[in-house]
Structure formats: C-alpha cells, structure tokens
Amino acid sequence: LTPKALLFDVFGTCVDWRTSIARAAAAAGLPGEAVADAWRARYQPQLETVRSGGREWVVLDVLHREALDGVLDELGLELGEADRSALTLAWHRLDPWPDTVPGLARLKERCIIAPCSNGHIAQSVNLARHAGLPWDAILGAELAHAYKPDPRVYLQSVAALGLEPGEAMMVAAHNADLRAAAECGLRTAFVARPREHGPGQRSDLRAEGEVDVEVADLVALADVV
Amino acid sequence: LTPKALLFDVFGTCVDWRTSIARAAAAAGLPGEAVADAWRARYQPQLETVRSGGREWVVLDVLHREALDGVLDELGLELGEADRSALTLAWHRLDPWPDTVPGLARLKERCIIAPCSNGHIAQSVNLARHAGLPWDAILGAELAHAYKPDPRVYLQSVAALGLEPGEAMMVAAHNADLRAAAECGLRTAFVARPREHGPGQRSDLRAEGEVDVEVADLVALADVV
Q1: Which residues in chain B are closer than 8 Å to A128, comparing Cβ atoms?
Q2: Closest Cα to residue A114, out of A191, A10, A189, A185?
Q3: What CA–CA distance (Å, rounded) separates A44 from B184?
Q4: Which of A41, A55, A212, B84 has the most CB atoms lying inside 10 A of its own CB?
Q5: What DSSP assignment string belongs to A173-195?
Q6: Any idea what DSSP says for residue B15?
Q7: Using one digit for the tens of pLDDT, what is the confidence trace for B152-182?
Q8: pTM, entire model
Q9: What is the value of ipTM here, to two decimals?
Q10: Cβ of B69: how many Cβ atoms within 10 Å?
C-alpha cells in the first residue's frame, strides 16, 4: 500500500554532506575531509544537549558555527570571522546523491514528499533550491522545536499533513532514525548510503531490526512504494 | 532590487476559490454560487474570533466545516454528514488563476516563493499539489498559530526563512493584507483579482495606500521584480 506521505531524513540520506563540506572547507584553505569528519562528529553530542533539556532549541546554523569553532581549535587551524560565517552556510549548499532528484521526482507523483530533518526551515529551503529537491513542504525539527530522534519531530510532522502516523513512511539511511520513527507508528524505508562517511564506513551499512522496505537508493524506492 | 523571498496570499490571489467552491457545491446538489459566497462571508468573522483571543487557533478545516453547517442552515439546504465533510475539503482543491502557475515558475527562478496564507499546512500542501503551485516551503498561519492580519503570521514566516522583513515581499490581492504586511516591514505587491468575488466585485479593485508594486497578474509581477 502506497503511503500518503514520505518523510525524508536529509543529511546523508538525500545529500552527500561529507563530499560537499570537504570541498567547501578545502576552498577555504582547510584540510577538507578532516574538517568535514571532525565537524560532523560534534553533531550528535550537540543535539543531545538540546534533547536532554540542557539547552533551548536553536537552529542548526548556531550549532554548526559553535562546532566549527571547536573543530578549528581542535585541529589547530586558523580562519577569520567572516570566513567562519561563510563556511557555516556550506550546510545550506550540499549536493544530492545521483539518484536523489530523479527518485524524488517519481515519488512525488504519488506521495506527498517532505523532509523530516534536523535542519531548520531556512537551511532546508536553501538546500532544496541548491540541490533541486522538489519538496511539497518543509517539515521536521523547527516545527517541533526539538531534534530527532525526539518523537515530537516525527509526530508533529505527520500531524501537520493531517495524517495518522501509519499513513506516513520515514525514509532514512540511519537505523536510529528509523527505529524512533517506527516507535511513533510510522512505516520505515532504509536507504543504503554506504559511503556517507567515506570509504571506511562501518555503521548503517544495512537495515538493523525491522523495516518495511530496504532499498539501494531513492530510484529503487520509487519502484516499490 | 529583487526580494529574497516572495510570500503569497493564496485564497483569491493565487487560486479562484469562488468558481472552484461553486462547482463543488453544485456537484453536491447545492446552489453553487450562493453557497460559495455565503460560505466565504463567514470567513473573516470566524477568523476574528481567533484574532480577538476569544478562541484558540484551530486549523481552517474546522472553521470551514462550522461555517458550512451555518450556511446550509441559513439557506435552508439539506446535506448529509459525509457529504458535508467531503465538501469541506473542496477548499483543498481550488483551481489556480491562468497566470498563477507560469508566473510562480518564473518568480521561483530568482526568489524563494512560499504561501503566507491563513490555510494550514495540510490544506496548503494538498492545494499546491492540486493546483501545481511550486512552493519552496509552506509558511503562514500554522507556523504562528495565528491568523492574518495578525503581525505574527508575517514576522514568523519571514523569520523562518532567516530573513529580515525588508528582504521579503508580500503578494496579495487584498489591501488589508498588504497594509498589515507593510506595517511589519515587508515590501508589498498588489495583484489585481477583480473577479475574485464574481462580476459584481466592488472592493480591492486597485491598490489603496502605498504599495511597492501594482500588477495585473503574477506573470506581470515576474516582469518587474
């Protein structure tokens, strides 16, 4: 049965953040992949400060900038204030995986498609315009003022579409994201992104636990939903 | 100077609600135009109950259904429960004016485009899919849990895009909407929709007060912004 809506994780699932961030960092004179990996490594611990209630929800630009300052410090790198601000916005300009745009175009013909991302609305809009992601709406963290896997992010995204959780399917390359969505009653699709973290990736290579669908990419998803 | 974002009123400005609702009502065996006009006449008084603080914000489906019950009562018309629910959702399937889709397509090439409507997210998504409105995001009343012309609707829509009010332009066929947007610091574009209320329309035929742009339709807007 085709879901009424497909909700997508974005970083890693729809776009290749590592290659894009490494390129932007290199263009700023920094060691690209080292900066990309160190930057992303601070992401979940940062989100956890919000999820745990230790900090008010803030947009991802704020967290990305704080993390960049930490990364530059950690790696002993120099970068001026204006360049730090500009590089932070590289998270608004990430390139899609090759299957993302054709897959989304086909899926949009029969389902509502929307991001359910930890990115805020401005970041999601700018990213969609850069990458050509044809979303029907921007849902996710900013609606709930919470960060996935907080259940409010999934439930408020589904509710905003006027749907029941079982009428929506969460699409992600990350098992933890799908597990949380399933606990909220959403259906789940695992999309393999085995190079998201580069050639040495060891996690999220396959679906773990029960998912409704496991596919190689978003074009393959359009063949089955 | 081209605005970074264009925010659109939807009912009347982008879609011809009167013709579409009259057709749906007629298909349900009712006097189409009489129902459409009586239904819409209850709209602003309903919103005012929310704006005045007399009632919590609810999605437009709830208000539209209550108003339909009132209209059928007022006009002495019979309609079963299931047909009332179905007809209420006609507000999710309104046809665009002929210039709307080509105008938005051109405007989207250089500006973020989003509704800043009193419609809720589910209604706005369904309407966009029906009418082919290529929004970058769905903004408006549901973000703020308020109804235009409450300033929070404009200001929160602009803030969600990470912009200052002066970087955005409100596009509407209604002077009151533009006046409220201008008071929030947005730029304004008046689009003439002289048949929104049918052949006898007497209000909102021209811009009143200062607007930045006054155009005949959305294709003309694309020529000037």
Answers
A1: 136
A2: A10
A3: 37
A4: A212
A5: S-HHHHHHHHHTT-EEEEE--TT
A6: B
A7: 999 999 999 999 999 999 999 999 999 999 9
A8: 0.97
A9: 0.96
A10: 13
